[in-house]
Specification:
single chain, 304 residues, 36% helix
Length: 304
Amino acid sequence: MDDLLKRAIRRSFERAAATYEEAAFLQKEVVRRLDEHLDGVKVDPGLILDAGCGTGFAYDLLKARFPKASILGLDIAHAMLRLASDRHGQAHGWRKWLTRLNPQSSPYTPICADMEHLPLKSNCVDLAWSSLALQWVDDLEATFRGVHRVLKPGGLFLFASFGPDTLKELRAASLGIDDYHHVNRFIDMHDVGDALVHAGFGQPVMEMEHITLTYDELSGLLRDLKAIGAHTVKQGARSGLMGRVAWSRLRQNYERFRQDGRLPATYEVVYGHAWASERREDGRQVIQFRKQGGEMPLSARSPP
């Protein structure tokens, strides 16, 4: 990914910080479901990395599950981190000393950085967590290698990302209206599993489910994508606004997906976890793939 595109992605999330919380109902739901993947997992982390933490709404779940852990919240957008820090961040004055005296406290440290280039020392993190951020990296395997590097041996990596069916209706509706791409390409679950193995992770497990949001009008979907900063297209995007003719065609094309008076927006959510461990002597790894049945509709205007 070139520096210009990386800056565009960062700028989109900087601008979206003020509107992110209101529109991020899907992101909050995925965080909740990702947390459920820790049920039954034997891990007691002292230090957790939340890579791509956004405004920090995973913190409360991680704190509730691991009350003694310290949490590093890493994000590329400083404005997002500022909101996360205001909500959970470093204490000041007398509160700082109270935090040190309380052994049950869970300090939160914000780090503004690119998750493709983690500014952490090797073997320092017990649990690496990332919810709906990996789809923005350019080199997934290199990113995984970086996560593997900072994890302690036996540390757990747990993440959620988007798969190829994400926004499939918008992708289909935009075909042929102009020469630009209107939806990002997302990596298949099996390729994500392969990248984990190549990065040195052991015992990887991949799962997938579809979540469908519904809207009254297409403009509602596009408004929400912009409000969370997810409207930047990585490959072949137009440089300016869509013209009236192209917009009219896009809206007409999307109408063919309307069901029961609502327009669907499908998201393929890929969950994965793996352990930072040495490979087998013969170099082989076993990957488990699981597909959850059925689509799970959510109203885009209902609480998560």
